Amino acid sequence: PGKELVMAKKAKKSKISVVGIGIAAVIVVCLVLSIVGVCIDTWTTTEELLGKTIDISFSDYSERAESIRDAKESASEWGIEIESDSLLQPMVAFGYIAVIAAAVVALLYVLKLFVKAGIFRFLTGGVGVLTFVAGIILIAITASFCNDSSLVVGAGAILTSVGAMGAGLAGATALFLKK
Question: Global pTM?
Answer without folding.
Answer: 0.82
